[in-house]
């Protein structure tokens, strides 16, 4: 066998991963801060609030209940609502809405109960950023506890989030270095240096590797962690999160209107109770609303007090008007629903849904 030919045989190398720098500092870089011993990079869940040192404010009894009567809409309002609905449909004829004879209008009491619990939760994690001269205060004194750090509370019942550097936890660490060698396997020859037989790969000039595009052919790139500064400021980051936790209950109604339609409309507010913590309802004429209030108040206070601090609760009862309208047109009986303060219409069996003609 020709030994020269043996020497020139292509040698295929297994694919080699692109050389890149680390994407996060090593865990050993983070100090063990008093009061934050369990803090890790990436966070470790929400921290339960401390027990109050003073008795929590007790909920106050709800105000006297108003009248729960439902108003009825007029025949003109029902007809105008249907006309507006038909006008929004490109191929609906307005004839049934204009000329149909309304034979019956039936109102339904439908209540929606909603409980909102506005909470504040806190979590901590080690974080870092390139050091450019920021304040370094680690071990200057004991850092305050995560629930002792003041934060600006937003408007109640609106979600929000705030990030705070925990005082006396910031220190400077030497990073990995300014640049990393950065090449990757040639995609043409797969690192073998040859294309076919004894032909050297022209794409990588027979090296088997090529410089990556991010380093512009220089063979190295800037460190992603320190942005080339070679120093990192590491600190404990406190995340304060305010959340409006809301649950609703809609009384089952027998009108025939789909319940999911009611989520798109508002109702007449009959009752509102806002306190630090609310009492379950009592004395409401629909017992299912009373039961829903008792269940949700108990669930919210038991659930959210474990991992967060309850700042405020409110319970609201809306009356959502629903009117079932029966009308005749061309000798046939049809129905539609008018519902919500917006007088929305549901008319699945509208008798003239296409007025288009083919010329």
UniProtKB/TrEMBL annotation:
<dbReference type="InterPro" id="IPR052789">
    <property type="entry name" value="SSUH2_homolog"/>
</dbReference>
<protein>
    <recommendedName>
        <fullName>Protein SSUH2 homolog</fullName>
    </recommendedName>
</protein>
């Amino acid at each position: 066998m020709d030994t020269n030919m043996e020497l020139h045989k292509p040698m295929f190398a297994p694919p080699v991963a692109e050389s890149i720098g680390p994407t996060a500092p090593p865990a050993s870089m983070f100090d063990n801060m008093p009061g934050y011993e369990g803090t890790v990079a990436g966070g470790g869940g929400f921290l339960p609030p401390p027990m109050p040192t003073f008795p929590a404010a007790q909920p106050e009894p709800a105000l006297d209940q108003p009248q729960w009567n439902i108003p009825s809409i007029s025949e003109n309002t029902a007809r105008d609502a249907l006309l507006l609905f038909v006008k929004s449909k490109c191929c609906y004829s307005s004839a049934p809405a204009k000329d149909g004879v309304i034979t019956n209008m039936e109102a339904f009491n439908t209540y929606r109960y909603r409980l909102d619990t506005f909470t504040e939760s806190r979590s901590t994690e080690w974080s870092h950023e390139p050091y450019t001269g920021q304040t370094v205060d680690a071990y200057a004194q004991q850092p305050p506890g995560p629930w002792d750090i003041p934060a600006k509370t937003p408007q109640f019942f609106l979600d929000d989030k705030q990030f705070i550097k925990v005082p006396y936890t910031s220190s400077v660490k030497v990073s990995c270095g300014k640049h990393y060698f950065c090449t990757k396997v040639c995609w043409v020859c797969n690192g073998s240096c040859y294309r076919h037989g004894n032909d050297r790969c022209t794409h990588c000039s027979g090296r088997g590797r090529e410089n990556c595009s991010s380093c512009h052919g220089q063979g190295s790139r800037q460190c992603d962690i320190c942005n080339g500064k070679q120093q990192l400021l590491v600190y404990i980051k406190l995340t304060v999160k305010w959340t409006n936790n809301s649950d609703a209950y809609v009384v089952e109604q027998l009108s025939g209107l789909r319940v999911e339609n009611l989520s798109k409309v508002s109702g007449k507010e009959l009752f509102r109770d806002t306190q630090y913590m609310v009492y379950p309802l009592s004395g409401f004429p629909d017992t299912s609303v009373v039961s829903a209030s008792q269940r949700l108040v108990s669930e919210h206070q038991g659930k959210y007090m474990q991992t967060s601090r309850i700042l405020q609760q409110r319970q609201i009862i809306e009356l959502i008007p629903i009117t079932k309208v029966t009308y005749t047109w061309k000798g046939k009986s049809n129905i539609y629903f008018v519902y919500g303060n917006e007088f929305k219409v549901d008319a699945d069996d509208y008798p003239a849904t296409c007025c288009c003609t083919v010329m």
